[in-house]
Specification:
Number of strands: 0
Number of helices: 3
Number of domains: 1
Strand content: under 5%
Distance between the termini: 77 Å
Helix content: over 70%
Radius of gyration: 32 Å
Largest sheet: none
Length: 89
């Protein structure tokens, strides 16, 4: 970030002393503007991260549902055991 701020300062100085279409001005503009391929690369990374988050969320949801089924079955079994112990007394 500091590097970019420094470039912007130098770019401002260049604008005062050179024509807008001079090579120095054009080079300064290129240095301070993000490259279009970086934006595409960043958007692709965001998309991949979102897809991965979706997959993890779906997996978590499935595991949660499976855990609820296991707990329900265990609870039902404990209830049956409790009933049989109570009837046996």
């Amino acid at each position: 970030m500091f590097f970019k701020q420094s470039l912007v300062k130098h770019q401002t100085k260049l604008f005062r002393h050179h024509r807008p279409d001079s090579p120095a001005i054009l080079a300064a503009r290129r240095m301070t503007q993000p490259a279009p391929w970086r934006k595409t690369e960043n958007m692709n990374q965001v998309s991949q991260n979102a897809s991965e988050a979706l997959g993890l969320s779906e997996s978590s949801s499935n595991l949660s549902a499976e855990g609820m089924t296991i707990l329900h079955n265990a609870s039902a079994e404990m209830e049956r055991i409790s009933t049989s112990v109570t009837q046996g007394l």
